Amino acid sequence: QSYCALLCGALLAFVMERPDGYAFVARTTRVPVIVPILLVVALLALLAKIAVFPAIALVATYWIAYAIIQEAKVARVLTWQPLVYLGQRSYGAYLMHFLVIRLGYLIFGDSTVIGGLLTAVFCLAVTIPVAELMYRWIELPAIEYGRRLLAGKKA
Predict the structure, then answer these.
(1) Residue 142 burial (CB < 10 Å; 0-12/13-18/19+)?
(2) What would the pLDDT profile of 102-128 be if each residue is shown by its tens digit?
(3) In 3D, which of 9, 112, 29 has the Cα closest to residue 70?
(4) How far apart are CA 100 and CA 110, in angstroms?
(5) Backbone angles phi, psi at 2, to 5 degrees
């Protein structure tokens, strides 16, 4: 079932390669932002009853197409400083979040809604500062080292 997302993404790329396909995608995505949001709401309502992986893949593919076509609107959101900050530290957050979630479930339990909410808050409260430390102490020095290596090769 997980192949469905890959198939949807490949199909989107194939369709958008042709001018008439791009025009079709443009027509279907030039809608107010509430339309993609309502798609996610409908998907969540559907998922409350049954897991439908193709529906998840289709909605995600629509969001990708929307982001491609509505570039200016998406760019405004993605240049919002809190998102830029998180984006710069996302690799550290990616590496740490699963461990922190598991730790949160050990501390707060995973069988109640309250335990899940406390785990989510715990995950944010721990993951973001740890990602910041990883960014400052590991990523930035590694990036600077890479730049020095490249500068030495050009000389």
Answers:
(1) exposed
(2) 999 999 998 998 999 999 999 999 999
(3) 29
(4) 13
(5) -70, -20
